[in-house]
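User: I'm new to structure prediction. If I give you an amino acid sequence, what do you actually give back? Let's try with this one:
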Amino acid sequence: MEQDKNKAPVDGEEKPKAKRGTCRKPAAKKKAEKPAADTDAPAKESPEAPAPEAPEPAQTDTTNAPAAETAEPAQAKADDTDKTPDTATAKADDTDKTPDTATAEAEGADQMPDAAPADTADTADTADTADTAVEASDPAALDKCAFNESPDKDTPEQRERTASISRTAQLSIAQIMAGLEDNPQPAPALPADADTDSLPADTGDTDDAEDEPEDTISQKLRRGAFGMAKWLLLVVLFILIIAGGGVAWLYRSATPDMLPEIKVTFDGTELAPTAYRWHVPVVGKLFRRTYAETLSSAPLELAEPVSGASPDLLVTPSSGYTAELTVTDADKEEVYSGSATGFRSFRFSANGSYDAKLVVTAQEGADNTSITGSETWQFRFTVSLQPTIQLVTDSVQQGSVAAIRVGPTLGSDAPTLKTTLENAGFVKAANGWICYLPIPWNEETGGKTVTVTADGYSKDLTLTVRAATYDYKDYGSKSQMVSPYIGKEDAPAAVKKLLSTSELDIQWSVGGFVQPFLGSFSTPLTYGMTEYAGRSYSERSTNYGYGGRTATNVVIQPKKRNDSMIVPASGKVLLAEDLGGVYGCTVVIDHGAGLKSIFYGLTNLEVKAGEKVKQGQLLGVCGKTVVAELRLGMVPIDPLAVWRSRCDGLKLY
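Assistant: Good question. You get back a string of structure tokens that encode the predicted 3D arrangement of the chain. For your 653 residues, that looks like this:
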């Protein structure tokens, strides 16, 4: 049996190849010498046992190798040339093996070279000798051979493992070269029995992603939160773009045509603004468009001087706006600061140049959509006051009263009057000054020139005096004339000295005048009536002649004796005493403005000198005849016309 194993193969029979990476088990000890006949005889094939394996030569010095080792049969060379593609693939895979694997296979290759069997017994002896040398020289190699018990030809499992290891090495190198940001983990080694055909092809990034470790929950949450934040950011950005476009459109729609139009008039002159700053709402109260411009840095100068002490200031429209005015004089001293409405009651006290600044501010509405801001007017004006001077009536009849009114003046000095008519001068009135001009009963008719001066301003007025119609009486003798008669020049001295003085303002402004007699009475002698004695018939028929006397007062005869008398108008009692003679008990009442009531012939007095009396207060008891006189200054006027409200001049106060 041992001989059969040592026999050489027959020509044409395939020579068995040594298994790569494995070693034969060491053969049993053989005899050192064999007969030559055995070596020359052809080997018989044993059907019971497989062909003997070729021994692996030991790594010895090449000089000691037998010469038969260099010679190979031609058939073996042909077999090597006709290797299958699988063998070629295996060889190609060998080039991709890892260094460890390559080293191991190199060691196996050194141990199992392909050697052709020799036809002689020397070959078998040489193989036995090589086995013996391996066993004797390297026990570790024996263990390795025992561990790597595999045929010389690579099995499919080994090729698959080799390919897997090669791809894993390539994948690791690609990941390192790509410089992945995530921490790449090396691909785990596939088991030897893994099916490489089921693995996906090398697709670069896909394999890298599969090799990455699975994210943790916190990483997934962070990645989801980051994605949500990016989505929200995009939504907000989109909304901002839309809103910005809308705001831009609204901003362009807020044109100057929307600005308020405010008109300011000062003393009849319309003023132009010098600056403005308005805020037009674009998006409610949050965003507004501002229009601001300074039209003039210098104040506007008014050409016409202000002629009134209280010029008018009008701001239109006034609803929804507040107007504040500041006025300074030439010395930069503030003379007024307040609202435009309050300026109506302000009065300039001196002429000169003034600077004014008016600021009109729009009040913000409750809906927050109204225009806000302000507009400014700066102007300079000159106050040259010309107080109003006017006649109450252009004409007046004899025995009545004319009145001249002067408006408010800057100073406290009373205006002056120049005329041929007697007067008591100007007195303070409710709104300025007033002067009452008494017209004597015999004043020449026609136009009268009156010159009034106030605050340095003078004005000429023309007053027309009309003729009055008076009665007259003719008597045969003077003894028949009415008595008592007290003419203009017949007043007692105690009365005359009181006529030229007056310290009171107008007292009849409340209630005016009334008749002082409670009962009925007769007037045998009226104001302006002339009594004649001894005129001829022709003189009487034409009311022409001389020597008559004209009454400047009224003689009253009450129907009831000792009838009571009342005060005709409020005032102050200057005189209340019995002067004796034709005067009897005399009372003088000052009504102010130079107007005085004088009563003669009372039998009893109910007032005292210096006492202030009211209209309707009991004055005294009248006698059989009472002489009533009303003087304005030194000039007597018609008492009945005043009592009965027929004197227009005294109706103004």
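You can read the tokens as a compact description of the fold. Here is one thing that stands out. The radius of gyration is 74 Å.
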